[in-house]
Amino acid sequence: MRPGLKVTLVILFEALAVAFALFFFWGVHQQYQAIAQSGLVEIQSGTAFLLLPLILPILHLMSIAEKHLVAGHKLAKFRKMQSRLFIFFVLMLPTIGFGINQMVISQLKQQGYHACSLVTHQTRSSFTTYSKDTALCPKS
Questions:
Q1: pTM of the complete model
Q2: pLDDT at site 16
Q3: pLDDT (tens digit per residue) in 49-71
Q4: CA-CA distance, 1 to 124, in Å (whole number)?
Q5: In whole angstroms, what is the distance from residue 40 CA to residue 131 CA?
Q6: In whole angstroms, what is the distance from residue 16 CA to residue 4 CA?
Q7: H helix or E strand, kind and range, residue 3
Q8: Hey, which residues does 43 pair with through a beta bridge?
């Protein structure tokens, strides 16, 4: 593969990873706006996994650090640390996303919202509607 094509693909994949993360945070922002402005808020589960592709830019940064900052006998230690950091980030990125989603749900409950009985399920997520007034809940 040509070096220019490799660089282009890396940039595209990293941009896509950042776009997924931005989409996640945009969704959280939209939910907070809905809490402040509306009596009806729809929460989607499973969006925390949108943060997982951020592992690609993190790996890229670690490989750059390996090439330019580490040399000699410290290289083996750094590579061992890299594998541990990879596992750490693979576990922590979705955990952070789940934590943020739980903060949104906690904010809903503090504002007096209650989950409606209608929950729609899709392949990887479910949609739960929260309402301050049960009369506003959508009917099945």
A1: 0.83
A2: 96
A3: 999 999 999 988 888 888 877 77
A4: 35
A5: 5
A6: 18
A7: helix 3-37
A8: 128
Q: Are 17 and 51 in contact (CB under 8 A)?
A: no
The set of residues, in sequence order, having a beta carbon less than 8 Å from that of 43 and lying 6+ positions away, is: 31, 101, 104, 105, 108, 127, 128, 129, 130
CB 93 within 8 A of CB 115: no
Q: List the 40-44 sheet strands across, edge first.
A: 40-44, 126-131, 114-121
The region of weakest confidence among 9-13, 35-39, 69-73, 80-84 is 69-73
Gap between the Cα atoms of 5 and 86, Å rounded: 25
Instruction: List, in order, residues 6 or more apart from 117 with CB less than 8 Å away.
Output: 137
Q: For 79-87, which contacts have Cβ atoms below 8 Å and span 24 or more sequence positions? A: 85/58, 86/55, 86/59, 86/62
CA distance 51 to 137: 30
Pairing of strands 114-121, 126-131: antiparallel
